[in-house]
Amino acid sequence: MLLHPQPSHNSTMLLTPKTTSKSLDPAYKLRPEREQIERFKASFKTLFGHIDERESEENVKDHLMDFLKAVYYQDTCLIAPKGKTDFVIHLGKDAASRAGVLFEVKRPANRSEMVSRENLNTKAFHELLLYYFQERSRDRNSDLRHCVVTNVYEWYIFDAALIDRVFYRNSWLQKEYKAWASGQKVSKNNDLFYKEIAKPFLAELDEEIPFTYFDLRTYQKNVNDHDPTNDKALLPLYKVLSPAHLLKLPATTDSNRLNPRFYTELLHLIGLEETKEGNKKVIRRKAAGQRDEGSLLENTMIELETSGKLLHLSDPGQYGRAHDEQQFSVALELCITWVNRILFLKLLESQLVKYHRGDRAALPTLGYLFAFLDAYDFASESGDDIQEKDRVLINASVLGLIFEKINGYKDGSFYTPGFITEYMCRETIRKAVVQKFNDAHGWQCADFAALQDQDLDRPRANELIDSLRICDPAADTASLEAEIDQLVYALYGLTAAEIALVEG
Fold first, then answer.
1. How many Cβ atoms from other residues are within 10 Å of residue 394's Cβ?
2. What is the pLDDT of residues 267-320, one digit of tens each?
3. Which of 327, 391, 442, 499 is in the most buried spot, having the most CB atoms within 10 Å?
4. Residues 88-113: pLDDT tens digits?
5. Rounded distance, CA 18 to CA 24, Å?
6. What is the largest CA-CA distance in the chain?
């Protein structure tokens, strides 16, 4: 990248637009509920019904803010103009909270100032850069997540980390901005920054600039379609504008959390109940007088008693000393084994249905037990579907939690939500990496962000990262590998094309 650009009409920057699907974090797998999608469609129709291309830019901004509030941010984040910035999405509910997303808005008819997929060197992008520099320099805001240019129809979404690395941290551009902002130029007029600083810099910029691009008009057909099965096409758009993506927030719903209704009913079918003893929860046989003769446990205990099967145990002492204790322990072990196998078969069944494109013909059932299980959705937690209101997702992680609780019925069990373990994993790994680099180079980096500013030798950095040893008691290797990958990408400042090449 040139540090001293001169005016030119031939930019050498590589613009790489990404689709909404390609822009989403692979970890964003949570499925929106049907009610959320219907609200999104209704608000989308309202937005398009209010847009008059002849109206002012202020009119367009108001309708855009109304749309985003109605669908995503009404009760969580303030959306409002800030200074000269058209509007921002704050990270909190009030104006005192920092801005997370900056918006530059043009009315649809203003084509001359709008960016395009082939050209970012326009007034719209110049203005966005100015907003970013002011936010970082004047307001000391290092919490920006994305920057957006839109004319309602076309959307260009830039990762703030890219804007920071390519523009804000460029020494020439930083020096020129400070000289202009402090009155050292012939004018403090914004046009001088746009035309004599930002424009010539962009003209000579030799960088890859990845960004998310989409046109809302291409989704109108799906929004107006009354067939719910076609709503899947809206999911990437729905997600790319959500807080989880735009503000890089943890998803508000943890798909790995325990579903109380499913868990309680499953215990009921087995003939168990969960109760609290001291500071821990334990699972036990239902109390006398509350037991159900038709439960798996009670039926199994009767069968063991009447058939004399306990007499054939090679080591009955491992199940307890008393006959009643042995009978209960053997019956419970059998029931847990059966249920574990049935639930895993249910997961397999859901995959078979997926492979056969929804064809459920001749699939076996086991009476009431499968009827109960069929009331839940055992599909994978892939993000390319909508969560229907009457079918709650039970994924493999939830089943693992249930098995853990049932199998640990004697000692109790504790569950940590996924967003907490993800945070703990990320922070622990990054601190370990910072310490490893500090020890190797004699640096004093306080955190991962400081480490990113160092001049890294990639082969040596790879050796240091490869020398890390991580023990994960939960054996969630997929999450660990994904976190390590993201850490390395961030550490090296890889471009979108480089990441695609690595992952390809």
1. 26
2. 888 888 888 888 888 888 888 888 888 889 999 988 888 888 777 777 777 777
3. 327
4. 999 999 999 999 999 999 999 999 99
5. 10
6. 100
CA gap 256, 400 in Å, rounded:
9
60 CA to centre of own chain: 29
Partners of 387 in the beta sheet? Answer: 33
Record the pTM. Answer: 0.60
Is residue 405 over pLDDT 70?
no
3-state secondary structure of 330: helix
Six-digit token string for 348:
């397999």
For 31, which DSSP code? P
Q: Please report where in the chains the tokens 């040893």 appear, as a residue.
A: 469
How many CA atoms within 13 Å lie on the side-chain side of 241? 25
List, in sequence order, the alpha helices (H) in 151-196: 160-163, 171-181, 190-192
Q: Which residues of 86-101 are buried (b: 16+ CB within 10 A; e: fewer)?
A: bbbbbbeeeeeeebbb
Q: Is the separation of the CB atoms in 103 and 52 below 8 Å?
A: no
d(CA 295, CA 418): 32
Look at the block and give the residue holding tokens 């499913």: 262
Alpha carbons 101 and 90: distance in angstroms, whole number? 7
Q: Give dist(CA 108, CA 68) in Å, integer.
A: 18
Cα 307 to Cα 166: distance, rounded to the nearest angstrom: 77
Collect all residues with Cβ–Cβ distance below 8 Å to 300 and sequence separation of at least 6: 331, 334, 335
DSSP structure class, residue 33: B
Looking at the predicted structure, is the pLDDT value of residue 390 above 70?
A: no
Pairing of strands 208-215, 14-18: parallel
Output the DSSP codes for 100-123. EEEEEE--TT-TTTS--SS---SH
Sign for the pseudo-dihedral over CA of 118, 121, 125, 131: positive
